[in-house]
Specification:
Elements (H helix, E strand, L loop, with lengths): L1 H20 L11 E6 L5 E6 L13 E11 L2 E9 L6 E7 L4 E7 L1 H5 L3 E4 L4 E5 L18 E9 L6 E10 L5 E2 L1 E4 L1 E3 L3
Parallel strand pairs: 3-12
Antiparallel strand pairs: 1-2, 2-3, 3-4, 4-9, 5-8, 5-10, 6-9, 7-8, 10-11, 10-13
Length: 192
């Protein structure tokens, strides 16, 4: 049985290696464009630019969630959270993963602020947004994350890391509390 499993693993490894070489040996690795943003007041952010010609594929009715940017200065951070949604969102629960890099003090603004969502957070990175009056986050007007910021999380850096992938674990609710499917896009943060 162990020999069969080892044979299958080697076979899949060999097939995978051959598949990656079919696109031409001159392109050994796929690269991503990284942009470092420094604002006029000295805030620094690093962001991975995804190709505009190849949008991230989502399943039908799936909402793309992610971090649009992380702006850092003197240990303080602003984390801009976005959602590209084809359906209205009634509530969000998000957690920053890994949880030991940032301490979240508060959240506010964005599309959630525009519709008077109640926004709450805790220091470990749990962030909630909902409306007691039934307001819903409207459908995205376009597929540009910068135009679809849900809110900004404000906090501080508690662990210095380099080149760390940061994701959002998300639970989203639609009309009547129905669970919405979400795809979290990782964000590479270069640290301070």
């Amino acid at each position: 049985m162990k020999l069969l499993a080892l044979t299958l693993m080697l076979g899949f490894t060999f097939i995978g290696c051959n598949a990656s070489n079919e696109n031409g040996s001159d392109q050994a690795a796929q690269t991503e464009e990284v942009e470092i943003i420094v604002t006029e007041n000295g805030l620094k952010s690093t962001k991975i630019n995804t190709s505009t010609s190849e949008p991230v594929a989502t399943l039908p009715n799936q909402i793309q969630m992610g971090i649009e940017s992380i702006i850092e200065k003197n240990g303080k951070v602003e984390i801009n959270v976005y959602a590209l949604n084809d359906h209205p969102i009634a509530g969000v629960q998000l957690e920053v993963n890994p949880a030991d890099i940032f301490k979240i003090d508060s959240i506010g603004g964005g599309r959630c602020g525009d519709i008077d969502f109640t926004l709450r957070s805790n220091p470990k990175g749990l962030m909630l947004g909902f409306s007691m009056s039934g307001n819903m986050i409207p459908v995205s007007n376009n597929k540009n994350p910068a135009d679809n910021i849900l809110f900004t999380a404000y906090g501080e850096v508690i662990k210095n890391v380099k080149n760390k992938m940061v994701t959002l674990e998300s639970t989203l609710a639609g009309k009547g509390g129905a669970k919405l499917d979400a795809l979290s896009i990782p964000y590479e943060w270069n640290g301070k």
